[in-house]
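Quick illustration, no need to memorize.
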Amino acid sequence: MMEQNYKAVIIDDDASAADHLLMALQKYPFISVENLSRTAAAGKRYIEKIQPDLLFLDIELPDINGTEFLELLKEAVDWEMQVVFFTAYDKYMLHAIRQSAFDYLLKPIEPDELDKVIQRFLQLREERLLPHPIVPPALRYEAGEQCGTSFMVSTPTNDIFVLHPMDIGFFQYNSERKLWEIILKDRPSILMKKSTNAGNIKAYAPYFVQINQSYILNIKYLVMLQNNRCVLYPPFDGYTDLVVTRKYRKDLMDCFFQL
């Protein structure tokens, strides 16, 4: 099977090491290095613009430590990006792992070690393309199932609705009206009052989980994740925009298996 193309960014102030890595990556025609930056500040701008699949990040940068930079990136990156730290100092290895780096390379980079990283990356991406059923029996939705406690919501016109959690498939943020909207299984959607925020919504039931900036899902209706896209039980199975971003994926999975 032919590999798809992947974008990469390199951030390293060591010109010799960065050029060496750039040349080594030319062995992989499916990886395109879109930018090589010398500072974290410059690299961050390109990362947000390019949205690379791979980031090769030096730990010793002139403007910030690489591990600290990775923490800053977590707020900005909402797509799947694997980070590979590389440095001449192996003292950082344990800290790099704790910071959830995908992998780690020592300078000077050995071709065999780089190849292992690339093969791991390809294997991970191939696994991401496969459906991953996550349907523990305890969380399957059965027709007529009742669970959770009813709660009241207020609309922008001060109407009050009493809803049961299982009436709700998900909440979506209406960017035009700048408020949250409730998507229901057997009636039209309901707009929530403007002061309602994501924290208020998630407090209604333990299985209301945020999956990206614009959607909060009732995971009782979740059948599986397929390419980071939520597949739901009827009557919500026709919705295709429910994508789990990297920032929220761990919270979703933790909540799903803990309930």
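The longest helix spans residues 111-128.
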